[in-house]
Amino acid sequence: MAAAGPREDAHVAVAEAEDEVARAEVRAEAARARATRLRRQAVAASATGMGPRDNARLNSEHPNTTAVHDEANAADEVGSPPKGRHRRWLHWVRRPRWKECAVVAAIGVITASLGASGFIELEHRSLLRKQRLSAEFAAAARRGITALLSIDANHARQDLQRTIDESTGGLKDQLELTGVALAERVEQSKISTRVAVDAVAVESMTFDSAVVLVEAKSETIYPDNAQHPLSSWRISVNLSRDDGQIKMSQVDFLR
User: Fold this and answer.
1) pTM value?
2) Where are its TM segments located (predicted)?
3) In a designed cystine with 167, which of 5, 107, 171, 226 is the match (CB 3.0 to 4.6 A)?
């Protein structure tokens, strides 16, 4: 008789393995059925009031009851999801209640209100700073034009020096060069001028400079005190900050 080849041996091994698996499944099914039956008996016994002696007798008659029962419980525990974790997960994914929604909405409204209040406060402070800066430039322009156009023949040099003190840059250099000669002519002519500023408007400004429009009227006073018509002026004044003080840097007559 010829020896079996490798292929036939493989078929035999597979068949034996399949038989073993089938037997194992039968044993497992029998164990599950026994566990179910014993669990039912235990429930019935607790319902009928079986005592410790009865339980001992039951265990002696069925020595594998405890092991099978533990195996069944372990199988149930493995197959069932953990209830505590499932409940915690459901707690986190549950829909928010209306009270929680109201609290979130209130927090949102309060946050928005605080943000709007802060923005309004910042805008208010910025507006106040601009108003103070504009008033500062307007006062400097009024003061500078008054000094420039008001000259008393009796003390022309002092008035001219006041105008130089209110000036900076190129305007100051020009006044210092021509001031002495101008003062001498005014003193010799005995003619004085007085000015009244009617309006001042800041056209543009930064923190250190500004352009201001000035409307003014000047009066010329002669030695005989004769009456002469007033002269009207529209003047553009460039202002610059010099050592913390605002001074005139350029004057253009727009009359």
Assistant:
1) 0.54
2) 102-122
3) 171
The answer to whether 65 and 58 are in contact (CB under 8 A) is: yes
State the Cα torsion 247-252-253-254 to the nearest 10°: -120
Among 92, 194, 214, residue whose Cα is nearest residue 153? 194
pLDDT digits (tens, 9 = 90+) for 183-208: 999 999 899 999 999 999 999 999 99
Please identify which residue in the block is written with the tokens 């008035």: 159
Name the residue with tokens 């840059």. Answer: 169
Q: Are residues 155 and 53 in the same domain?
A: no
Residues 244, 140: Cα–Cα separation, whole Å: 12
Q: How far apart are CA 115 and CA 95, in angstroms?
A: 29
Give the span between the Cα atoms of 150 and 221, in whole angstroms: 11
Block residue for tokens 């505590």: 84
Asked which of 74, 104, 122 is the last residue of a domain, the reply is: 74
Predicted confidence band of residue 11 (pLDDT cuts 50, 70, 90):
low
Token digits of residue 33 = 């059925």
d(CA 225, CA 196): 19
- Tokens representing 204? 């543009």
Domain range holding 145? 133-253
> pLDDT tens across 216-242, in order?
999 998 888 776 788 999 999 999 999
Output the domain CATH number for residue 137. Answer: 3.10.450.230
Helix orientation angle between 156-165 and 98-149, rounded to the nearest 10 degrees: 150
97 domain residue, yes or no: no
Longest dimension (CA), the chain: 164
